[in-house]
Automatic annotation (TrEMBL):
Keywords: Oxidoreductase
Entry protein name: Succinate-semialdehyde dehydrogenase/glutarate-semialdehyde dehydrogenase
EC assignment: 1.2.1.16, 1.2.1.20, 1.2.1.79
Catalytic residues as annotated in Swiss-Prot or TrEMBL: E249
GO BP annotations listed: gamma-aminobutyric acid catabolic process
Cleaved signal peptide residues: none
Record's keyword annotation contains NAD: no
Record organism: Novosphingobium hassiacum
Domain Aldehyde dehydrogenase residue range list: 19-471
A Pfam family matched in the record: Aldedh
Length: 477
């Protein structure tokens, strides 16, 4: 496995050494490759070609679409190491995490290759003896997706696989920082038999211009967006002009609630997996640690000890450690939040963890004695910082947890079965993990509520988001 073999997954016409998007390794600033960028007219042509291609694709049997998706999955598995290295080079995440993302991303293709055969309609008991009532499920049409850099591979398969399974076509605009994983997926999909015009990847320098195109082009019937709440609101407003269907996975402020009766070792393991995975750059990672007063000091002590074992290095040299943030601007933002919290009265717990001087690295930080009034308790950090707040009882924990406009993911650690149910029901979030810090899987619906968006990815619900329900009445029987 070498950089050359990983880059070999990219077709020559998707690279551009002169005017392309320069993809830099955030661990060292070295150029990985230059991806060709597409302008608005070129992307519009892709949309038009995709709308033609979807008609033949949608006319295929579910089994035929399923077989092509399965072949795509098999190719991903066969090229897993090259895909993982490519992802590490462009995003900085440790190689072991990248390998996990390849496996996770491929699982959605496998799942929807199977779900393609299960797009069932209904026969509804009729209201009249000479009439029959039924429903059909049909593809939405041509779709567009805008994906982020933090999971450059899985965010694409979660959108493209159900779209293709449903019989749709789709154009993807990947993040400017990480277009290479997307282009590699496109290569493998076409090798597997996905028609070239049906699924295209269109890197672009001006995201706003392509977003505007997706929102206004009459052939685009659905947009799936993963990113900030602010941009999601803009897309909603612009797409409203044509009443386009939307799936939005937006910002989060996930509470990680630890009660006095929790298994602290399990809670610490969950905290490390949730907060520091991908250097804290995940939308569902624990953003606020709410710890009951009786175990507060013990939890902070154990968390500090676990953080002290983290090695911050280049993701290739240290596959199981913690890598860099995506760029220097991200480092400056996270460092600013820490500085502000300390000025407001938070305390830095534990010794400083060493981090390389070069590259976009930020060491993991545990902040104790954080209060609700501090800015860091209300913002999505997107970095390796763990602010720990204290609470007294269950009602206060729920109040603090729900006191946010966001509602993506929440975590609860308690041994009390009745409390587990009360918290699952009381937390205003689209997803709740109980006694576990890793909740995402292809078999379950992933998505949020409130200003964290709507729509679901994964499970049967993920396929339904790319299909219309058509009611049919048959009379004269």
């Amino acid at each position: 496995m070498t950089a050359d073999s990983a880059l070999g997954l990219l077709r020559p016409h998707t690279l551009d050494s002169d005017d392309g998007i320069r993809v830099l390794n955030p661990a060292n600033g070295v150029l990985v490759a230059s991806a060709r960028r597409y302008d608005v007219d070129e992307t519009a042509a892709m949309i038009e070609a995709a709308d033609v291609a979807r008609r033949e694709w949608g006319a295929r049997t579910a089994k035929q679409r399923s077989d092509v998706l399965r072949a795509w999955y098999d190719l991903m598995v066969a090229h897993a190491e090259d895909l993982a290295l490519l992802m590490t080079l462009e995003s900085g995440k440790p190689l072991d995490e990248a390998r996990g993302e390849v496996k996770y991303g491929a699982s959605f293709i496998e799942w929807f290759s199977e779900e393609a055969r299960r797009a069932y309609g209904e026969v509804i008991p009729s209201y009249a003896t000479d009439k029959r009532v039924l429903t059909l499920r049909q593809p939405v049409g041509t779709c567009a997706a805008i994906t982020p850099w933090n999971f450059p591979l899985a965010m694409i398969t979660r959108k493209v696989a159900p779209a293709l399974a449903a019989g749709c076509s789709i154009i993807v605009k990947p993040a400017e920082a990480t277009p290479l994983s997307a282009l590699a997926l496109e290569t493998l999909a076409h090798r597997a038999g996905v028609p070239e015009d049906l699924f295209r990847v269109a890197p672009a320098r001006k995201s706003s211009a392509i977003g505007e195109l997706f929102c206004t082009h009459p052939l685009v019937r659905k947009i799936s967006f993963t990113g900030s709440t602010e941009v999601g609101k803009v897309i909603m407003a612009k797409a409203a002009g044509q009443v386009k269907r939307l799936s939005l996975e937006l910002g989060g402020n996930a509470p990680f609630i630890v009660f006095d009766d929790a298994d602290l070792d399990r809670a610490i393991a969950g905290a490390m997996a949730s907060r520091f995975r991908n250097a804290g750059q995940t939308c569902v990672c624990a953003n606020r640690f709410l710890v009951q007063a009786g175990v507060y000091e013990a939890f902070v002590e154990k968390l500090v000890a676990a953080v002290a074992q983290v090695r911050v290095e280049d993701g290739v040299a240290n596959p199981s450690g913690m890598g860099p943030l995506i760029d220097d601007r991200a480092v400056e933002r996270v460092a600013g939040l820490v500085t502000q919290a300390l000025a407001q009265g938070a305390m830095r717990a534990g010794e400083n963890v060493a981090a390389p001087a070069g590259g976009a690295f930020h060491p993991p930080v545990v902040l104790a004695e954080v209060t609700e009034a501090m800015a860091i308790a209300g913002e999505e950090i997107f970095g390796p910082v763990a602010p720990v707040l204290r609470f007294k009882d269950e009602s206060e924990a729920l109040r603090i947890a729900n006191d946010t406009p966001y509602g993506l993911a929440a975590y609860v650690f308690t041994a009390d079965a009745a409390r587990q149910w009360r918290m699952m029901e009381g937390l205003e979030y689209g997803m709740v993990g109980v006694n576990d810090g890793l909740i995402s899987t292809e078999v379950a619906p992933f998505g949020g509520i409130k200003e964290s968006g709507f729509g679901r990815e994964g499970s049967s619900h993920g396929l339904a988001d790319y299909m219309n329900v058509k009611y049919c009445l048959v009379g004269g029987l």
